[in-house]
Q: What sequence folds into this?
């Protein structure tokens, strides 16, 4: 069985701790592991292989976190733009043997891996072997409005037929669902044979099937499968729920009495984070006076003090501050839409920006200058490039740097430096075994990231 982990998405409902460049599934909330890493750990007991479907920006973050967990031999399918889950799962199905069982899971759910989870997977696997498309319905413990629901009928033990799928309800409808007793949270997890899914997709969404098949056949295949952008844009944007699940006649639902949490917004995050005796989320830098039931999130050295406030969400980052009411966390997604028009960079990036070769952190900037800490992973190098509007000073903090500066190539060690004049062709590489850290001081009239002319690039970026 192959665990297909759907790893795209921008995590807008957890902005500003989640950005397009570093979405929520890669944030290390729990035991210094990300939700993506916890998914790997949890499902490694049941799947022999992992197939990660991701976008280009997140591929290298996922790769680093896979290596941390010892799963570096996992396979990847890279999508240049998102076209929802129907196509992503089709790519996975095209990439394996037709009889391979695929266990489809999101990368951002929190699930307790206990005996009930194991039992749910075992029952799902039996149904999948018999040619069914299987979905997992979580036994609800409260009327949640942030989840979709499944209405199940004719249950035998833990295996049920499905009467219908329901959209996220209002609170009144959600309470009716709970009282009815036949409604379950839609977990977004599925299991089936690859060929079974493709046959159902071809039957109920033939245009998605054909466009996905063409895109997969035309994809660049090597270290990973990279779908071409033009082919991806030809695919209709549709979820597996709309394309297949609401139409198929061969669906089974596994009644899953598991501890499951879709950490999709700050209200959900509040539920899973540890709290003090007053219901405030624990934070070493937080002083809470006469305040209860607040989510206060900040990972920096800044002292945070709250006084006489209750039921708030306060999220502090170096580049953005969010203050809103608990219970209104779903509205953060609408806030992000507005910010995309007014200040798109604050949606895309935090202070730390991840790149295929490593990452950089903006330390300070002002009129005509910017200071960064650059970390280059072992064996990686930046593109061969030049800038029209800035010069750069590099000082090595730790590790070994191999530098191309014009027609010169040389090695720099800690406390050694070089100057890159404006317009000079240059490159930075880490030939060593430990991360290379340098402080870069940029000086010029224009210091944005689009002042990069790439001459040669290991990662095939423009």
A:
């Amino acid at each position: 069985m192959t665990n297909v982990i759907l790893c795209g998405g921008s995590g807008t409902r957890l902005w500003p701790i989640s950005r397009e460049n570093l979405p929520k599934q890669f944030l290390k909330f729990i035991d210094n592991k990300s939700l993506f890493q916890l998914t790997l750990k949890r499902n490694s007991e049941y799947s022999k292989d992992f197939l990660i479907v991701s976008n280009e920006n997140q591929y290298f973050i996922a790769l680093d976190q896979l290596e941390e967990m010892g799963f570096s031999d996992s396979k990847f399918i890279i999508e240049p733009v998102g076209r929802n889950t129907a196509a992503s799962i089709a790519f996975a199905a095209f990439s394996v043997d037709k009889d391979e069982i695929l266990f489809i899971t999101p990368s951002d759910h929190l699930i307790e891996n206990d005996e009930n989870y194991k039992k749910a997977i075992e029952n799902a696997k039996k149904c999948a072997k018999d040619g069914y498309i299987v979905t997992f319905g979580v036994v609800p413990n409260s009327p949640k409005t942030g989840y979709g629901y499944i209405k199940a009928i004719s249950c035998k033990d833990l295996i049920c037929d499905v009467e219908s799928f329901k959209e996220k309800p209002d609170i009144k409808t959600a309470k009716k669902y709970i009282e009815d007793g036949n409604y379950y949270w839609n977990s977004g997890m599925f299991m089936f044979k690859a060929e079974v899914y493709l046959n159902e997709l071809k039957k109920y969404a033939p245009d998605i099937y054909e466009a996905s098949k063409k895109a997969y056949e035309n994809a660049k295949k090597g270290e990973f499968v990279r779908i071409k952008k033009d082919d991806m844009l030809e695919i209709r944007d549709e979820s597996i729920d709309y394309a297949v699940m609401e139409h198929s006649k061969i669906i089974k639902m596994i009644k899953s009495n598991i501890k499951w949490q879709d950490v999709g917004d700050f209200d959900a995050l509040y539920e899973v984070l540890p709290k003090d005796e007053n219901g405030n989320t624990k934070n070493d830098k937080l002083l809470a006076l006469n305040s209860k039931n607040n989510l206060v999130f900040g990972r920096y050295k800044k002292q945070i003090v709250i006084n006489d406030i209750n039921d708030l969400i306060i999220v502090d980052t170096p580049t953005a501050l969010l203050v809103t009411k608990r219970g209104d966390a779903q509205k953060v997604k609408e806030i992000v839409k507005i910010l995309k028009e007014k200040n798109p960079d604050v949606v895309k990036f935090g202070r730390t920006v991840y790149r295929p070769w490593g990452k950089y952190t903006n330390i300070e900037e002002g009129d005509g200058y910017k200071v960064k800490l650059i970390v280059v992973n072992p064996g990686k190098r930046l593109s061969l490039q030049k800038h029209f509007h800035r010069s750069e000073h590099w000082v090595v903090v730790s590790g070994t740097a191999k530098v191309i500066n014009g027609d010169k190539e040389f090695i720099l060690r800690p406390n050694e430096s070089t100057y890159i004049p404006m317009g000079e062709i240059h490159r930075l590489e880490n030939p060593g075994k430990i991360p290379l850290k340098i402080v870069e001081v940029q000086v010029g009239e224009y210091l944005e990231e689009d002042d990069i002319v790439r001459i040669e690039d290991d990662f095939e970026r423009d």
Remarks:
- The first strand starts at residue 2 and ends at 6.
- The radius of gyration is 24 Å.
- The first helix runs from residue 35 to 43.
